[in-house]
């Protein structure tokens, strides 16, 4: 007649084994069908028998013996493992117990619930891998779209190059300067990704300015200056009305890069932080590079003169914080100017 404990172990599909001094295992409770299948129904199982049929359990016995040697009551867990049973998976788990100076191994059949959970987790893992693959594909596609947007912008900029070769070098430097300052300011990723190309489009509206004004040697007449200043709005109109972030930033810079911190700029007399940060950056590097460059209407100024003039306009023409950042990375700015001629 089975004891209550034996009946309970049988009902939960578990088998209890006692480890003898010679390291052999003696079955304490009646075997179950899966146990009989795996162990060939032997009531006495030596370590070689275990090795042959269940190598995972054999490895766990190494940890179990160390646990028993310590003499502390309690148990350690093998964690689940899977065996093949009559052509199907069988999930098992073992516990090594110390109890009343005796050493036991309890082997439990975790049943179909565990396998169903395991399959569910595997499906979830597969779904995560699929999602990761789709995310990588999305990143790749976004990069391709970004490349196409930049190519569109560069084709527009090429038109300005045909008008004036020096302006072509100027617009390249403006983009590189702006990216360097935006990075030093720790601006958000969207700005960092777009500002180099968008800043290079700051004077795109000059395409619509007649050559007799754009390339005029000497100073402008009042009407000529008024027409020259329309390049900001003309450029903004060229870039307005799109859902492409790069061109939207180009629009913002084209429209606002001649605004001044104190509100005396054009075309809309914006003041302070009303002026978008990308336009405040371009306002600084545009003046710096233009003053250092030869133009049909002027000779280049020395850098000492340019920096003195710009410092006097800190807080008037230029955002003080952005201007200070510009000065802090002046060696990088100079390197860009030297390399892009």
Labels describing this entry:
single chain, 341 residues, alpha+beta, Beta-Lactamase, Hypothetical protein af1432, 2 domains, seven-stranded antiparallel sheet, 15 helices, 7 strands, 59% helix, rod-shaped
How would you describe this structure to a colleague?
This protein has 2 domains: 4-109, 2-Layer Sandwich (Beta-Lactamase); 156-339, Hypothetical protein af1432 (Orthogonal Bundle). 59% of the residues lie in helices and 12% in strands. The protein has helices spanning 4-11, 33-39, 47-53, 55-70, 111-163, 165-184, 189-200, 211-214, 222-229, 231-239, 245-256, 277-292, 303-312, 320-328, 330-339; strands spanning 14-19, 25-27, 44-45, 74-77, 81-85, 88-99, 102-109. Strands 1, 2, 3, 4, 5, 6 and 7 form a 7-stranded antiparallel sheet that branches. A hairpin with a 2-residue loop joins strand 6 (88-99) and strand 7 (102-109).
The name of the CATH superfamily of the largest domain reads: Hypothetical protein af1432
What is the alpha-carbon Rg in Å? Answer: 39 Å
Roughly what percent helix? Answer: 55-70%
- Average pLDDT confidence is 82
Can you tell me the overall shape? rod-shaped
Question: What layout of secondary structure does this protein have?
Answer:
Layout: H1 4-11, E1 14-19, E2 25-27, H2 33-39, E3 44-45, H3 47-53, H4 55-70, E4 74-77, E5 81-85, E6 88-99, E7 102-109, H5 111-163, H6 165-184, H7 189-200, H8 211-214, H9 222-229, H10 231-239, H11 245-256, H12 277-292, H13 303-312, H14 320-328, H15 330-339
Antiparallel strand pairs: 1-2, 1-7, 2-3, 4-6, 5-6, 6-7
Helix pairs in contact: 3-4, 5-6, 6-7, 6-12, 6-15, 7-11, 10-11, 11-12, 12-13
